[in-house]
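@channel anyone free to eyeball this complex?
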Amino acid sequence: MIVRGGTIVTARGVEKADIVVNRGRIAEVGRDLEGYGQVIDAAGLHVFPGGIDSHVHFNEPGRSEWETIGDGSAALAAGGYTAFIDMPLNSLPVTTTVAAFDLKLAATRRSAKVDYGLWAGLVPGNIDQLEPLVARGAMGFKAFMCASGIDEFPPCSLDILREGMAKIAGLGSILLVHAESPALLTDPRGPRPEDFLASRPPDAEIEAIGEVISLARDTGCRTPPFRSAGNRDDLRAMLAAGEVEMVVSDHSPSTLELKQGDDFRAVWGGISGCQSTRRLLLAQDGLELPVVAAVTATRIAERFGIRDKGDIAPGFDADLWLVDLGQTDVVMRNDLLYRNRFSAHEGQRVRGRTVRTLVRGVDAGKGKPIRRGGRS
Ligand SMILES: [Zn+2]
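replying in thread with the prediction:
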């Protein structure tokens, strides 16, 4: 197969080139290549490496009324993503044991439309599960320092964190920490969003991050909350300057009912967004295309040690997003493929219309597991 005449976007730059694909892998990238088999005309289109969203909550098994693996992964494919790594909550059971991991893996194998990996959880009492979870293919571990919002997924004390981190480091895996110091959090004094923000002061994060850093040099990544327009603008500036390692959706859906009401304390905290991440980024002024490729694919693959994904180069999986960047639009409810079709991004400007999303050279439809280190 050959993808002919597209404008290839990688973390290294932008160039017009053909892509020769052989058995799902990229064989050659260059000008005026000889193709064989199927020809995909990409003239006038941009071709990005398929995105990898390493932070989604697809909630299966157990909370499929919030989201399903089938709908969530279809939404990802529609937005230019060819792989995801699913979080260990808010499914039921939570993914903190080998048995729960196997259940989720079976559900994902049945339904995923793009390639997939699974996070596991570090919680009090499951140290003995970490090694077999890594052996099963867990891509990394998630831990909370404060309440997670899901009772089945309790937070770790500093002692448990220390023990878990030593074990995880020894296994060559990685840990993602939700870093807020519980001692500095209070109950919101009222129902408004401002009350909620005031109950979780920035100091709680700063202290917790300091604690995690002192526990280990490599603590994984974190997602700072959007406390203010100033924070948001600072983040955008850092992103444009190439100082942000990765951008993920934290797609954490629920039913519409759980997102409604005037009491911010009672409203479900997650938002749906994984279908729009890339196109929202592409609509940002001043963000270079290679930065978008880097933060949504290349650097994520590097962080997880997925050697055959995240780039358009010989030997990599033919995970390709063909997109018409001449099209601009806004996020509209009718276009969303989530189980619950609404999003906090509705009405926001997006750029790019997905023409095709190829997973290992074929249209998205049937995912395969990804592994740290890659298949080869
Ligand atoms: Zn999350």
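from a first look: The pocket of zinc ion is lined by residues 55, 57, 87, 250, 252 (CB under 6 Å).
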